[in-house]
Amino acid sequence: MGNIFDTHAHYDDRAFDEDRYELIDKLFEGEVCGIVNQGTTVETSKFSLELAHKYDNMYAAAGIHPECADENSMEQLNVIRELCRDPKVVAVGEIGLDYYYDVPKELQRRVFEAQLRLAEELSLPVVIHDREAHGDVLDYIKKYRPKGIVHCFSGSREMAMEVVRLGMYIGMGGVITFKNARKSVEVIEAVPIESLVLETDCPYLAPVPYRGKRNDSSMIRFCAERIAEIKGMDTEELLRITAQNARRVYQLNV
Ligand code: NI
């Protein structure tokens, strides 16, 4: 088994309907040692848990994504709470703020805050989605001091250092291989390797040379190669350390 740990995937996505199980079998037979499939709604959280029950090295996060927040979300958190009692649910995620979409900010904040409290209540880490909402996300992290990951990190170097100082991990994926990734490169340069985890966000954000294609966990290798280059370290060593970090943040004793 290899050392690719994908801390953030969406294998429930329609893009995998044709070959989902064959693909996941192949990944675990290859270099992938762990995957955490993220929930975005009650439905996909349940599906994530089904996948987690099917594969030893697959885990689930349960939560409501800011893009999916609506007037039913607060009530649906009771179902999320129940799902979180399953030992294969390792985080509340993905949750957060997305000011790019027109879901009302006030609603997003209410649903995010309720899930930060839920994670606190259940002693689970969180997986945070932050798109064009850096200031507010940082304020909530300071207020609730959750453990967990800021996934697909898109903030500044300064924000990254603050997130790390607050004890959270920086999630990095395909974007680091893009030509215009200057900001991500600065973040990677600044963040200590011990605070970094790798992810796909698949089916989206495939790294170069597969940019625009369907992403999967095996492609993390291309991100690892680029990050290793920036850090001036060996790719295998980087994969080993980041997989260890993933197990630490998700509290897996494997
Ligand atoms: Ni995601």
Topology, element by element:
Layout: E1 4-9, H1 20-29, E2 32-37, H2 42-54, E3 58-62, H3 73-83, E4 89-98, H4 105-122, E5 126-131, H5 134-144, E6 148-151, H6 157-165, E7 169-172, H7 182-190, E8 196-198, H8 220-231, H9 235-249
The structure holds nickel (II) ion.
Summarize the structure in short.
The chain has helices spanning 20-29, 42-54, 73-83, 105-122, 134-144, 157-165, 182-190, 220-231, 235-249, and strands spanning 4-9, 32-37, 58-62, 89-98, 126-131, 148-151, 169-172, 196-198.
The best one-word shape is globular
Strand order of the largest sheet: 1-2-3-4-5-6-7-8
Question: What would you say the CATH architecture is?
Answer: Alpha-Beta Barrel
Ends: how far apart? 13 Å
| Overall average residue pLDDT | 97
Per DSSP, the total helix count is 9
N-to-C SSE string, H for helix and E for strand: EHEHEHEHEHEHEHEHH
Rounded Rg: 17 Å
CATH topology: TIM Barrel
What percent of the residues sit in helical stretches (DSSP H or I)? 40-55%
Strand content: 15-25%
Which distinct ligands sit in these coordinates?
nickel (II) ion
